[in-house]
Design brief:
There is one protein chain. The chain is mostly helical. The chain contains six helices and three strands, in the order αβααββααα. A hairpin with a 4-residue loop joins strand 2 (55-58) and strand 3.
């Protein structure tokens, strides 16, 4: 993913990821309720997302469609975080996450399962 989305643009994308294709008016209504943004602010952000290639507009009624998935954005943002803050080391990020709070036995078991699945995938 070559598109860099800012927090405000991610809020717009969040509506599309949650609700699928919707009108700009609907996004504006949701953003007014969730953040207090007025219609002009929301429309400006939608247009930025369109210009960046993250959203596609169609007619009638200014329908909006997400062109990039939430998973793509999560992967790109995670990669950027690892490179920027953890010197490109995923294990440093993992260690930092584990050191932040006491994990429950269930959470630890879930993490072990994720690591084992990843290990199995790399062996293939």
């Amino acid at each position: 993913m070559q598109v860099k989305l800012y927090d405000s643009e991610l809020k717009i994308m969040g509506v599309l990821w949650r609700e699928g294709d919707v009108t700009a008016k609907h996004i504006s209504d949701v953003m007014k309720e969730e953040t207090g943004w007025n219609m002009n602010t929301t429309y400006t952000l939608i247009k930025r997302c369109i210009k960046k290639g993250a959203v596609e507009r169609s007619e009638p009624h200014f329908m909006c469609h997400a062109l990039i998935s939430k998973e793509e954005v999560q992967a790109a943002e995670t990669e950027e975080l690892i490179n920027k803050v953890y010197d490109g080391s995923a294990d440093k990020l993992f260690a930092a996450l584990l050191g932040r709070k006491k994990l429950s036995a269930r959470q630890i078991e879930k993490l072990k399962q994720i690591v084992e699945e990843e290990d199995t995938d790399t062996e293939k």
